[in-house]
Amino acid sequence: MKTLLPAAMIFCSLFNTVEYAFSQTWTPTGATTNFWSSIACSADGSKLVAVADGGTASLIYISTNFGGIWTPTIAPSNYWSSVASSADGNRLVAVAGGTSYSGLIYTSTNGGTSWITNNVSAMHWRSVASSADGLRLFAVTYFGQLYITTNSGTDWTSNTAPYGAWSIASSADGTKLVAAPGNYAGKICTSTNSGATWVTNSSPGEIWWSVASSADGTKLAAVDGNGGPAHIYTSMDSGTTWVTNNVPFLSWQYIAMSADGTKLIAAAWYSSGIPTGPIYTSTNSGLTWVSNNVSNVVWQGVASSADGNEFIAISAANGIGSFGTGQVWISQTTPNPVLNLAPSDINLAISWLVPSTNFVLQENLDLTTTNWITLTNQPTLNLTNLNDEVVLPQTNSSGFFRLMAQ
């Protein structure tokens, strides 16, 4: 699924970027049909994890090739309700709603090859979130109880959560959280200390269904749509103020965003009273939205790569009255990473948002030649902003850099 892409170039301290048309084409992946309930992906979008709830095989499935091939894991069949992934896709966490409120939390530290039951009380789990390193995990129940771990699930502690919190999202470093209650007229709450304390936002009082956060926790999004027409709301200031987005009045259920918060995806459950809904996407932090070229089905979840050039959506049904026949869908557009240049002590740091395809950093000392050299320096993933970074020694000579797709 890799294609030759245009290069992004940076000249000394200046960089340029080109706007590309935002494709809206969706294709089903190689996943079997099921009652899919939640989806998550690694920062580059190559590793996917999906869970099912009540289908013919209510298992946890993984893919390591952008959804081309899916493999069921050894995690037990359960009423899985939510799943989250670390940036590298190795640390995973899944929660089950369970029957009689007896759901459990399972974690994996090897990309889903093996799973363990965590040492936490059985609950009717509703939503889970993860920091980029996968060490800090946050899980909320259908009754708004919050549990937190700082060691990938080895130890969990119960924390005070916003009353009735159903959905939770985390910044990349796990310090900033946003939680939304599913009870009527609930207010969105935020935390800047990993959930130790919470502040109630000036959001409208709604039945919130899903929330999303940028990597730095500044840009937030939330949807309210518990079975009826509703809105999409966004915040550009960590939840201090919220605005209603310009989208149709539908039962919006699920939302996700890129690491920088500029690209968003939202899926609706009901459309014109029929239990099938569209998918809308935005490339300007929710200012404007476009309807995607995808079938109206019963959507159950959405996810985004760090750069927002890969969106994934899952359905529980492909039509009315066909629950259990849902699919995993994917939309991929051409990444256009922007190179950033900044001093780093006595060195030079070059960084770019993790792209959803492979790029290599190249250097040329003279643009009158074609002598581009691929640097052997392996980029380091910055887990606070999900940027790939390469640090180079400063010299007195001019240099030109570009990213070239593999």
Q: What topology does this entry show?
A:
Blueprint lengths: L7 E4 L2 E2 L11 E2 L7 E6 L6 E5 L7 E4 L7 E2 L7 E6 L6 E5 L8 E4 L7 E2 L7 E6 L6 E5 L4 E4 L7 E3 L5 E6 L6 E5 L7 E3 L7 E2 L7 E6 L6 E5 L7 E4 L7 E2 L7 E6 L6 E5 L10 E4 L7 E2 L6 E7 L5 E8 L10 E5 L7 E5 L2 E7 L5 E6 L8 E2 L5 E3 L4 E7 L6 E6 L1
Antiparallel strand pairs: 1-2, 1-37, 3-30, 4-5, 5-6, 6-7, 8-9, 9-10, 10-11, 12-13, 13-14, 14-15, 16-17, 17-18, 18-19, 20-21, 21-22, 22-23, 24-25, 25-26, 26-27, 28-29, 29-30, 31-32, 32-36, 33-34, 33-37, 35-36
Protein described:
This protein has strands at residues 8-11, 14-15, 27-28, 36-41, 48-52, 60-63, 71-72, 80-85, 92-96, 105-108, 116-117, 125-130, 137-141, 146-149, 157-159, 165-170, 177-181, 189-191, 199-200, 208-213, 220-224, 232-235, 243-244, 252-257, 264-268, 279-282, 290-291, 298-304, 310-317, 328-332, 340-344, 347-353, 359-364, 373-374, 380-382, 387-393, 400-405. The protein is globular. It is 0% helix and 41% strand. The strands form 9 sheets. A 5-stranded antiparallel beta sheet has the order 2-1-37-33-34, with no helix packed on it. A 4-stranded antiparallel beta sheet has the order 3-30-29-28, with no helix packed on it. The termini are close together. Mean pLDDT is 87; it is low at 1-23. It is mostly beta strands.
